[in-house]
Specification:
The chain is α/β, with parallel strands linked by helices and 207 residues long. It has one domain: Rossmann fold (3-Layer(aba) Sandwich). The protein is built from 6 helices and 9 strands. It has a 7-stranded mixed beta sheet, covered by helices on one side. Strands 8-9 form a two-stranded antiparallel ribbon. The protein is globular and about 45 Å long. 5-O-phosphono-beta-D-ribofuranosylamine binds next to α1 and α6.
């Protein structure tokens, strides 16, 4: 049984997609053992509470130094005996010590087809604003392993979504969430939970 801890900062629609996928059997062999948010007001915490999933807020604001926050975050995750950490809209930089300790056991959902519209400063609506500004006709989402870079780890799954005439950043964000994020993030977790991924020359493939 894969023990999954989900790290969140906002509305938690990706967390909800994971919860629902475990409930309906799209994700097997998995238990969500905890939800951690850096934002005490994140609705994602309400979603965890509604499901009876252990949840807590660990915010940099509550610590004197970033190092103390980093240690607290790592301790919390270790305490939950996580096998896999899922960043679902988590807007805090993951401590290097955590990346080392959980090498290839941290995944992130990014709302673009990496390597487009990713890296520092590309998060949330900013991603979709940039895509519309560029006039691309296809966008999408990417699930990737987390390494020391920003949105640079090995790509696991991607799903494309059409841009439509008249799209606003909000409309595009919603479509990317509905048609891509909420599909490939649960799928990636199920693949990992059932040992269906392999790494060949640093690239991830489904066995
Ligand atoms: C989503 O747009 C996701 O792609 C990005 O952050 C947002 C999180 O949304 N990483 P939610 O909190 O899962 O609703």
């Amino acid at each position: 049984m894969l023990r999954v801890v989900v790290l969140v900062s906002g509305g938690g629609t990706n967390l909800q997609a994971i919860i629902d996928a475990v409930d309906n059997g799209e994700i097997t062999n998995t238990e969500i053992v905890g939800v951690i948010s850096n934002n005490k007001n994140a609705y994602a915490l309400e979603r965890a509470k509604a499901k009876g999933i252990p949840n807590q807020c660990i915010s940099p604001k509550d610590y004197e130094t970033r190092a103390e926050f980093n240690d607290a975050l790592l301790h919390a995750v270790d305490e939950m005996k996580a096998d896999l950490l899922v960043l679902a809209g988590f807007l805090v930089v993951i401590p290097e010590k955590m990346i080392e300790q959980y090498r290839n056991r941290i995944i992130n959902i990014h709302p673009s087809l990496i390597p487009s519209f990713c890296g520092t400063g590309f998060y949330g609506l900013k991603v979709h604003e940039a895509a519309l500004e560029k006039g691309v006709k296809v966008v999408g989402a990417t699930v990737h392993f987390v390494d020391e870079g920003t949105d640079t780890g090995a790509i696991i799954l991607q799903k494309a979504v059409a841009v439509e005439k008249g799209d606003t950043p909000e409309l595009l964000q919603r479509r990317v969430m509905e048609q891509a994020e909420w599909k490939i993030l649960p799928k990636a977790i199920d693949l990992i939970a059932n040992d269906k991924l392999e790494m060949i020359d640093g690239k991830v493939w489904i066995k």
